[in-house]
Design a protein that fits this description.
This protein is α+β, with helices and mostly antiparallel strands. It has one domain: Haem-degrading domain (Beta-Lactamase, 2-Layer Sandwich). Helix content is about 40%, strand content about 15%. β1 and β2 form a beta hairpin. α2 packs across α5.
């Protein structure tokens, strides 16, 4: 009887035992402001070299904006599109070009496009360390293929830091 009471007590009390004994907290890598600025500036420079005045946005692992930049001739709409592309790439952890294709080809995923702040256009690239997505960059204001290439160039600029 005493043994069965002890087992019952352990089963009931086990979930209440302090988790701190085995849980050291959550460790996450994040993009720094300096890294985000480097990515955004490299994204704009790549598009400028191709003859486009564009906007770039970098979001952190939560999808919150770290950096918004635009060339002098880019518009506020470009800023908003770049932000939404970066947000989409971060939330779905894939390039927005891939997101666009899979939500077009799979009717079961089409409703994902209707979520707030999602933009299913090329030009958003996740920033990853291994399989961990720590942020994303979005480029807007040129063609979709060029926006994609510019965002990729921005991430490539810090590739050594992402290892």
């Amino acid at each position: 009887m005493r043994t069965s009471l002890a087992v019952v007590a352990l089963v009931i009390l086990a979930p209440m035992l302090p988790a701190a004994q085995s849980d050291g907290g959550v460790m996450q890598r994040s993009s720094s402001l300096a890294m985000a600025k480097t990515i955004a500036e490299a994204t704009l420079a790549e598009c400028k070299a191709k003859g486009y005045n564009t906007a770039a946005a970098v979001v952190d692992r939560a999808g919150d904006v770290l950096v918004l930049l635009r060339t002098e001739q880019a518009t506020s709409q470009m800023l908003e599109m770049a932000r939404r592309k970066a947000y989409t790439a971060r939330m779905f952890r894939v390039p927005t070009k891939e997101f666009q294709e899979r939500t077009l080809s799979d009717p079961a995923r089409a409703a994902q496009r209707d979520l707030h702040d999602i933009l299913a256009l090329s030009g958003g690239i996740p920033i990853q360390v291994g399989t961990d997505t720590i942020g994303a960059v979005g480029s807007a204001g040129s063609t979709l293929d060029v926006d994609d290439a510019c965002a990729r160039a921005g991430v490539a600029k810090v590739a050594e830091l992402l290892k």
